[in-house]
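pasting for the record
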Amino acid sequence: MRKIFLYECKRLLWNKFFAGLVLVLLFYGWQVLRRVTILGVSHTAPFSPWSFGDFLSRMVPLLWIGSLFFLTFFTSGKARRAAVLTDAAPMEPRRYALARCGAALAGTALLALAALAAWAATALDVEVLRKCFGAFLIAVGAMELFGKARE
């Protein structure tokens, strides 16, 4: 079941649509933060609980749209062609459907984390973000230098 879950996650999350959806979500989150949240909502201070709630209420429709698009991947033509193989597998259809729904839920959780990351990026100090980005660059460099060569 783990292999099926990982396959479905790979199929849903490693495509152009998911990358585009994350970029749209981050851009929209940045616009909301820049034009609404930083100015304050309903005459409140910036980054008050009211402004955070307003930010989340503006981001939730995009998150739900992303979730619905994830579910449409299960009924696409490519998924129907693969259904011939998955129906022949010695696994209960209920467990296979559970793995697929879990992959869609994981994708939705990643979109929600992207929306919260947009908010956190404006709430954190710039020096903290620079240190995190530096650590990311060091990790990527170490993986490139010491990682296994692909054949």
